[in-house]
Structure formats: structure tokens, C-alpha cells
Amino acid sequence: MIKKETINGYEDLEIDLYQSIECDKKQQLWFESCLHDLNWETGFIKIFGKTHQIPRLQAWYADNGINYTYSGKKLYRHNWNNTLIEIKEKIESITSFKFNSVLANLYRDGNDSMGLHSDDEKELGKNPIIASLSLGESRDIYFKHKNNKSNLIIPQINGQLLVMYGKTQEYWKHEIKKTKKLKKPRINLTFRNIITN
What we know:
This protein is an alpha+beta fold. The chain is 16% helix and 41% strand. The chain contains 3 helices and 15 strands. The strands form 3 sheets. Strands 1, 2, 3, 4, 7, 8, 10, 13 and 15 form a 9-stranded mixed beta sheet that branches. Strands 9-14-11-12 form a 4-stranded antiparallel beta sheet. β1 (4-6) and β2 form a beta hairpin. The mean pLDDT is 93.
């Protein structure tokens, strides 16, 4: 049985944690497949009118006709491969949520990061559900409330599934900070449902 933990005690933060959704051998196979088989690309985004290179690699996989844009960057859509379909179906069976896309992020080492943000683009709808699977090296994910000083750190370990839902994106931001301690790569698969109408 897969162990589920709900994060409590923080206003407007709705998160479920599944410490491991598969055996170690399967998780390693997923990691190796994603590392070598996904179409990783270097991305650029616009912030306050200036173009910046994203400090990680990205890949966007989705159903036909499902597109996604954030910070002025439209991601190139790829068709699902067998590994991503397997992972998606596993997550859907665990959570009972359905997803039509995944944004994959490759943190090559501790120098790669993700800035403070919310997944609140209009394509995600109100109160979006984001299922974030971590594979490879552990990295801390930092949460910060938008209106008060509340904050939280969750170490994301290999095989852990973190599901954000409810008002989380409306009231909280999250980030992956740079660190000098980590050298090994980490892959984060963030499954989401893009609204098309």
C-alpha cells in the first residue's frame, strides 16, 4: 500500500505527499529512461521585458492540441512516450485525478534551479491540480505564502509524489534553490491538466 501524508497546519496550503509510488528498481528505470529519452531543450523566458536562459532543461509532453505558455515562452509539444504514459497512468490510479500533459524539468546539478513562482496560468483553470514526481537526486522545494510570512520546506526524495491542489497556487509560491551540496541530476515531472475551452 502506498503511504499518503497530507500537509496540515498551513493556511490555504493543500498538499498530499506519497513517499514512494514504485519499487526502487522501477524508479531507477523511469529515471534512466527520462534522462536519456526525453527531448530536453534549453529554454528562455521573458521577465520584466528581459530574456533570460532558464537554469535547467525542459521538455513538454501532452495530448494532441494541448499547448502551454508561461512567462512569454510557448513550449514545443511532444507526443507521449511509453515511459511517461506508464508514469501518468500510475499517478492517475493513485490520485484519481486525470492529466493531459506533463512539464519535465532536468536539474543537471546543484547549479540548476527554479525561481519563486505559482502554477497559476489561465490554461490551468481555477484551483489547478499539479502532481509533481521527483526522480533521482533529492532537492528541497521551498513554499512561501503570498500574503504573510508563512513558509515551508519539503525535501523531495527519489520516487516521491507531491500533489498540490485547492487554493495552493492562489496563495503560495514555490521554488527550487541553487545549492553547492548536490552534484547528481534530478528529474521532476509535473503532471497537469490544461483546459482547452
